[in-house]
Amino acid sequence: MTFFEKLGSVDRRWIFLFIAVAVTIPLLTGRSAPVIPSPIVQHLFDAIDALPPGSRVLLSLDFGPSTVPENLPMASAVARHCLKKNLALYVITIWATGPPIINTLMNDVIRADFPDKVYGVDYVNLGYKVGNQGVIQALNTDFKGQYTMDAGLGKDLAPQPTSRIAMMKPIGGLRDFQFIVPIGSGFPGVKEWVQFGGDVSGVDVGGGVTAVEAPLLYPYYPQQLSGLMGGLLGAAEYEAALTQAYPEFGESAKVALVRMFPQTVAHLVIVGFVVLGNIAFFAAKRRARKR
Amino acid sequence: METLQLWIGALLTLMIFSFLYRDNPFYKFAEHLFVGVSAAYWMVQGFWNEIVPNLLAKLFPNQMANIVEAARGSQVQSHYAIAGILGLILLTRLIPPIAWLSRWSMAFIIGYTAGTNLTRYLSSDFVTQVQSTLSRPLITGSGANWFDTLMLNFSNLVIVGGVLCGLIYFFFSKEHTGAFGKMSRVGIWVLMVAFGASFGYTVMARISLLIGRIEFLRGWILSFL
Amino acid sequence: MKRGIPIAITFLVGISLVIAFFVPHAPFDSLDRHIPEYFNIIAAFAFVLGGGNLLRVHLTRITRRDHEWAYSIVTVVGFLLMMIAGLIKIGQTETGTGINLKADLADPALFFNWLYDGIFVPCQATMFSLLAFFVASASYRAFRAKTPEATILLVAAFVVLVGRTPVGQWLTGWVPPPFDQYLHIPNLSAWIMSIPNLAGQRTIQIGIALGIISNSLRLILGIERSHLGGD
Fold first, then answer.
1. Residue spans per domain, chain C
2. Residue A185: per-residue pLDDT
3. ipTM value for the complex
4. What's the confidence (pLDDT) of residue A1?
5. d(CA B29, CA B16)
6. Total number of domains constituting chain B
7. Which CATH number is A39-253's, of 3.40.50, 3.30.110, 2.60.40, 2.60.120?
8. Backbone torsions φ then ψ of A209, nearest 5 degrees
């Protein structure tokens, strides 16, 4: 076997080990990668930044533990941005794995960074409802009929009827919101919020998705989507835009920025693998032709 | 208890990663445990977040008031019994002699999905998309400089032409020969660029998930060092 | 009864929702409001059905001593533990460990969530993270520039992958203005996403939309009946 033939038939477990090392070592350094917001992310940031104080924003966390590394930094950055701008934040989820993630957002971001904000006045946790796009459709016409109780704040605040919550009073349907921000990783997600939420109610929608889904949603931009965060890079770009506009978030809003360094190294490794694999393939093909 | 939880999580993580070496009993154990736990999780979520507040509390508000406070003093909304009956009928799928009854509930689900998809996909994914494509000006002079203007015009051409050629590629009722065939070829190239972009983003997505797991394992190792 | 009524139900529900899209008056406004609510409730019962079916399949495997039946015991034990913990909401209450039916299901004090964080989260997250290794392996062993189309795909992927890295900045940092607006790799990557990728994805989206519209019409009109099964 020539060198190139050996290269082309490497046991895939060596490739697994290589990629694990390529991700682990940069991650251990704790360095962050410089990131410049792309136009599609900047448009989303600008759309939220332009909302006047008191505007009602619906944030839907439609993802599970498998995509937390990509989606939670997006949700955290958007939540920080909304509360910094004194927007009223309504947090829901249409994924069964969403409630614990809402708890994480409430405790680690909202209550930690904004202790002066009041639950029920500045932000509210409405929890999970079953039905996928059926929930979105029902929210168009009867928001409070779906959420008769909120989800509370764990042991600190038990669930209560939404009729007692001040910020729920003006909400009849999705039309009563000024912006909808779904953060999703599949079905149901941003696409369903555009189709059943934004296009029906006429409310602006801008969100974040995993990188797998991001290219599929570009056709909706900009008519049906005000902006889109795509994957960890999108999250890092939003964090960069946020810290640029509001430097006080420089330390707290850099989770995705730190993850971009191992991400960048891994990208280069994958490109290297593709190039190497093709070199091995063409070399073996040329050798076979010579024979 | 938190330490125990962390160790269980770490051990399950390593058991699943062991699949990368080869399939083994540890991986199978973790996989089967996950299947059981996740099925119960979804079931419990469906029961407490939908059936209890949006069905039982609306049909029996007084009886449910101790659990769902919002039901206290509210009126019975008996029309929700339709949903309750259809839901219970769905469960007959587990009883072979009367499993055919579950088709009624399935029919409701299919009817709802077909009815909403027809209008929403027609509106959001067809009419609006065609409108967005055709509303782009083919000639524009609004660039910041000559190269920007050239590229803006080229971009509009790529979008309009690319969508048209791509749709021509997917039209299999006519043979792809002559001018039709050439346009179909352009459509394939545009689709290949889209697939290449999707591949790049897919790689990004998968690596991100691995980063998350390695961060977790780092936290676990640091907890006992 | 077995086929006629389901076909009628599909037709009535589907056509009501289609008409409600165009006619927002009574009774269609009420139907448009309530049918999604009924759907949500039935969907929750579908989760119960899923759990019940899982139990049935694995208990059958155990009783018949099928291939790898011992793992089915693991599945059943995990299922029952999680189900009981969640249905009766066992957790830390003000008076110690007990049942608290009023607690929100996401309350971290519940044993249900302890199991979720300890078992569900690491298992699901790790299962998905395995894909990173397989994508790396596929990149090395499967992605070949055998045809011009495959080469276009790989070049586009290369630009997108390298576009946001310092290497991308370095490779084309020398490109002078005004060409750098589009030919500098980071900008080229953004252009690829928002122009040719958009065109390609829009093509696919329109095609899928036409397929879904025609299939939905076939289902509503009862032409498509495969979902009803045999007999």
1. 143-222
2. 92
3. 0.87
4. 64
5. 9
6. 1
7. 3.40.50
8. -140, 170
- The chain A residue lying nearest B69, using CA atoms, is A161
CA–CA separation, A183 and A74 (whole Å): 7
Q: Give the largest Cα separation in chain C, rounded.
A: 74
Taking the CB of residue C59, how many other CB atoms lie within 10 A of it? 14
Band the pLDDT of A280: cuts 50, 70, 90. confident
Across C164-168, average pLDDT: 77
- Taking 70 as the pLDDT cut, the residues of chain B under it are none
B85 to chain C, any CB pair closer than 8 A? The answer is no
**Of A268, A260, A255, A234, residue with least CA distance to A19:** A268
| CB contact at 8 A, A132 and A187 | yes
* Cα–Cα distance for residue pair C104/C112, rounded to 1 Å: 11
From its phi and psi, is residue C47 left (phi > 0), alpha (psi between -120 and 50) or beta? alpha
> Which chain B residues are closer than 8 Å to A211 by Cβ?
201-202, 204-205, 208
- Rounded to an integer, what distance in angstroms lies between the CA atom of residue C163 and that of residue C151? 18
Query: Which residue is associated with the tokens 């289609």?
Result: C18
Q: Which tokens belong to C193?
A: 């996403």
Least confident of A137-141, A253-257, C113-117, C202-206: A253-257
Q: How many CA atoms lie within 13 A of B21 on its CB side?
A: 9
Q: Which two tokens stand for residue B176?
A: 């792809």
Cβ-contact A157, A110 below 8 angstroms: no
Q: Which two tokens stand for residue B27?
A: 């991986």
User: Taking CB atoms and an 8 Å cut-off, how many pairs form between chains B and C?
Assistant: 414
B34 touching A, CB under 8 A?
no
Q: The pTM is what?
A: 0.90
Q: What is the pLDDT of residue A179?
A: 98
pLDDT tens digits, residue range A61-97?
999 999 999 999 999 999 999 999 999 999 999 999 9
- List the Cα angle B20/B26/B30 in 5-degree steps: 95
Q: Chains A, B: CB contacts under 8 A, how many?
A: 130
Q: Does residue A188 have a pLDDT over 70?
A: yes
| Rounded Cα distance, A43 and A37, in Å | 9
